């Protein structure tokens, strides 16, 4: 067990039982007992008023390596259709900061076919070095192709950190590589820090449906791997004058190495909602009462030049497509203005939008948690307020003038 | 004494909850408004063996018990009283008499498709002049060679017109009074059998309630259920069990209404705070919750007794009497707590109040239940 | 043909609330459910079983003894067999250690054409265990499957991307992960529930039973560890509730948004 109760100290107050998110502590004879459900998350350690719970450090871990042999920060620069994804540029930005702290070079790993221009771009964005694997079979992503090339690079060059965008492809690739290398991978990170003393990456991610944040470390295995949520980190700045080293190589790959083959690439199909890039988002929640409510949301969004977001409840109910979902299992957004309509503000929703600059909440329940984080709140029925708001946007100047005069 | 459901019963509850939430609730208002019989829900219930819960697997049933059946009706009725009664009338009144009194041939031919839900069942006892006084049957059945010839009509028959198989009661010997009543299994396509008037009702509006007409209707001799003259006994024992189903329906309606109301009064603001913060309303909620729980214990006890071959006639009557009163009482109070909105069709609560009323009337009025109970107490 | 479906019993995180006073999770009354994506994986396996001859669906899970109920539910939905890997040695596993244990369980079962997992579990949202199992077993993988066909010894899958999809083909055996778009899971049938509880077809196996490599199990076998966990810092807005009638409140809002140059 990783978390241990010191029985002599335990006063049986039960605080640990109440805070445990996993139902992993029982009270037996007025002493806390930790059961198999424990994930060593440490909530109980902080809650215990008498320091009767402590974490046991593990002495030995299978597959651990000499971490001093590993140096350098890598980011996987995902491209689709010979274009870099935004998240790749965000990773270069974040990777740059980490590399500077650790005083090591930043390397971007780029795989594809005939994309020398992207390698150049990565340098301009801040990579010191680009490992550019050029091959027909890397033009379109395959698990087998990408894993095998990146695995060989890691074995040969031993980076200490590798960041991958948490896209549908990054989340296919990351775990496969980490399992082949035998190292830890932390999914969907929203914050990365460095513990300089131990050269450890402190990887913070939401857990338990966004109800909990956890900081994960990978002490004995290298590289320390994270997938990083798109839209969370700031993009690197493009600097035409930057110089770097592009190492182009042609990996040895045969058609037969690829077991799961991509036979067709289809773009679109579902119109992707550009939530992450939008300055204004108007979101609807369960409080709309029915799918038709989204028409009103759309009207307001259109009027404001924004896009439509949605809570998980409405997506689960089939009122609107998943692409609109904001929150823990949807998109993370940080627009200038976020208008939440009929959204109560479940923690998992807040996780995806609380970085917005200005939050407006409209809800008829004055106790809705959304009001706690909103800059402006209106307590009222969305069906009354939204039409008024849409109408007011047509004569903003008159209203401002009238109110200022009054 | 053990108040815990078995693990299987707990899972039945969870599945019924999810099924009701996803399949039943979304259409409840629409089918009430349009009086449309929800045939698609019946098909889905059949698929998951929800129409033969207490019957053995070899007869097409789910191999469950009376308590899980009551739980199923309760959960369905939380969102839609109509769906609850379709399941209840089919199971308790349509299937059970064949399971209990049918010959092996009758079970093979009729019970299996019924319990599988491929066929729907109904029960025809009530006549224009024989309601509570079921002994006043006017429908006659005369043996003629290999067939009984039925003449007469039945009214207020639940699932009437939608069912494939009907349990019909008729006089084979008028001189013997109740001992002259016999029961028959009648298929919807038997010559001389037709559906008359479909009732327009105050509540459970999407449930089919029909008149059945028999004009020289030919019923093969082998479709006699039990023996000649056993009809009254069959009818009464069937209704004993049916009451558990209706009591569960009433319980479900009450319980569903309280759930809706709790949600509403927490949200609704008056005088600057949620109306659930007012003590007068809190007291009403406390009384309703207590009454519902008491009803639940009565219903589950009756179901438990039936499942375990213990006497259940009085227990079922008590459960139905109390649960029906509870449904009426609770839904009336819930409409009150919703205020003006409760009186509109914007919320389900007025429908629940309309649906509740019938539980005090059918399968024995509350007064009949009192007769059954007092007869048992005073014997 | 055997299809092995890996499932996880999870707390329904949708039902989790935060105690507004203490700032801690309110766990009471949060039901345990089969992870939603795993239900889609199971449904697809059952659909294959419905369509093809001689298909056996085996459900595999790792968890505490209480996960029994989740496995019974899969039997009630139509799975043929269920296996629960349960051992104190598994406690505290990260995705590496979990996938190691599940891979050992799969090897023990031996004969399989498809391993089906849900894309990710709602209590962790990592989406890692599926691909890591595939790596341990050296199988091809197709993740984010939203449509599936079987043709001879091959599977052809539509795998979802943010902006479209790939059509991916692979020979079996293969590991697939399912997303919600793949299908609409069936309910357990009432008959299935009673069957599931009357027969003893949930097998419980220990780490030893599946000959798992103890060095790679549980907390000691996990490369990652939780350094600390905390409830997310609440953002505090200025929290101004705009007063007055609907129209007045809307007008104050418009004024404030205008001042901040947001409209």
UniProtKB/TrEMBL annotation, chain A:
PROSITE patterns to which the protein is assigned, alphabetical: 4FE4S_FER_1, 4FE4S_FER_2, ETF_ALPHA
GO molecular function, one term: electron transfer activity
Protein keywords: Electron transport, FAD, Flavoprotein, Iron, Iron-sulfur, Metal-binding, Transport
Listed GO biological process terms: fatty acid beta-oxidation using acyl-CoA dehydrogenase
Domain 4Fe-4S ferredoxin-type, residue spans: 1-30, 36-58
Cofactor, free-text remark: Binds 1 FAD per dimer.
Binding site residues for FAD: 286, 311-312, 325-329, 342-349, 363
CC cofactor: FAD
Residue ranges of the TM segments: none
InterPro entries associated with the record: 4Fe4S_Fe-S-bd, 4Fe4S_Fe_S_CS, DHS-like_NAD/FAD-binding_dom, ETF_a/b_N, ETF_a/FixB, ETF_alpha_N, ETF_asu_C, ETF_asu_C_CS
UniProt cross-references to Pfam families, sorted A to Z: ETF (PF01012), ETF_alpha (PF00766), Fer4_21 (PF14697)
Family: Belongs to the ETF alpha-subunit/FixB family.
Name of protein: Electron transfer flavoprotein subunit alpha
Automatic annotation (TrEMBL), chain B:
GO molecular function terms noted in the UniProt entry: acyl-CoA dehydrogenase activity; flavin adenine dinucleotide binding
InterPro entries the record matches: Acyl-CoA_DH_CS, Acyl-CoA_Oxase/DH_mid-dom, Acyl-CoA_Oxase/DH_mid-dom_sf, AcylCo_DH-like_C, AcylCo_DH/oxidase_C, AcylCoA_DH/ox_N, AcylCoA_DH/ox_N_sf, AcylCoA_DH/oxidase_NM_dom_sf
Keyword Transcription: no
Signal peptide (residue range): none
A Pfam family the protein falls into: Acyl-CoA_dh_M
Cofactor: FAD
Domain Acyl-CoA dehydrogenase/oxidase C-terminal: from-to ranges: 229-377
Span of domain Acyl-CoA oxidase/dehydrogenase middle: 122-217
Domain Acyl-CoA dehydrogenase/oxidase N-terminal, residue spans: 6-118
Keywords, sorted A to Z: FAD, Flavoprotein, Oxidoreductase
Entry-linked PANTHER family: ACYL-COA DEHYDROGENASE (PTHR43884), ISOVALERYL-COA DEHYDROGENASE, MITOCHONDRIAL-RELATED (PTHR43884:SF12)
UniProt family annotation: Belongs to the acyl-CoA dehydrogenase family.
Protein name as it appears in the record: Acyl-CoA dehydrogenase
Lineage: Bacteria, Bacillati, Bacillota, Tissierellia, Tissierellales
Automatic annotation (TrEMBL), chain C:
Electron transfer flavoprotein alpha/beta-subunit N-terminal domain residues: 22-214
Gene3D superfamilies membership: HUPs
Sequence segments annotated as region (Disordered): 223-243
Essential cofactor(s): AMP
Signal peptide: none
Pfam families (UniProt xref): ETF (PF01012)
Family annotation (InterPro entries): ET-Flavoprotein_bsu_CS, ETF_a/b_N, ETF_b, ETF_beta_N, Rossmann-like_a/b/a_fold
Highest taxon above the source species: Bacteria
Molecular-function GO term, any one: electron transfer activity
Family: Belongs to the ETF beta-subunit/FixA family.
Protein name according to UniProt: Electron transfer flavoprotein small subunit
Organism whose genome encodes this protein: Tissierella pigra
Phylogenetic classification of the source organism: Bacteria, Bacillati, Bacillota, Tissierellia, Tissierellales
